[in-house]
Amino acid sequence: MTLTAPPRLLLVHAHPDDESLWTGGTIARYAAYGAHVTVVTCTLGEEGEVIPEGLRGLGPEAADQLGGYRVGELRGACAALGVIDHRFLGGMGRWRDSGMAGTAANKHQRCFVAGDLQEQTAALAAILREVKPQVVVTYDSFGGYGHPDHIRAHEVTMAATAEVPGIDRVFHTVTARAHLDLGVAGLKELESLPFRLPADGELPAVDDALITTSVDITDHVPAKLSALRAHATQVQVWQGNDGAAAYALSNGIAQPVLATEHFVLARGSAEGIATDLFGGGGAPGTDGGGTR
Ligand SMILES: [Zn+2]
Question: How many of the other CB atoms lie within 10 Å of CB of 68?
Fold first, then answer.
């Protein structure tokens, strides 16, 4: 009998909903294969724009209860994805959503970007030492789309993973341009889609040539959709009769639900990573993928 450590995947996200939007299918896939998946969320998402009218009173201009409410949404999403290990960086409520660049929320004394980078890095490093993930995922240096908290999450993750030994690979979660464009083209075929279609290049994405790893999430799209639905203050999910699906954030722009999630290797060996974050050369759980 051979005992091998289970693969451990840790993802660092800025706000509740990012884990589902960016990496929901990947989380569900690895969790389904028995990997230990840890999600670290850096803020409570207090500044998120609330979609349902009846919940807008939770926002920072009124009751300022959105962060606590979103903890419940996040819990629902984690359950849908199979995540049993969720943490808030520094403990729940330590750092606040900084809001979009240039807003008053950037000035809040507890906001994530005004926090001490070393303290934040130490908080993540402590989790990394405890969980001992072989693979860590966060955003690229642009934070995927420029949100200050996403950029800070990137900085904190790159700094913490550099100081903790035993991490084989760090990846950036990205949207691949050509793949996204194909998905958007598919949306144009849909009738009665309740969202506005994006203009060419309107949705942020990276050049496909940068992609190192494509994780097939076909079988886990239903879990991803359930997780997105759990974030009802932030995301609207639409599904047609034939199963076609799309979602929109508060901007009302339609986004396709793609069957692949894409990553760029930021640190570590590129061997065997075309379709597996753990470098198994194939599906997770096969050919030694993810075991060590
Ligand atoms: Zn976010």
Answer: 14
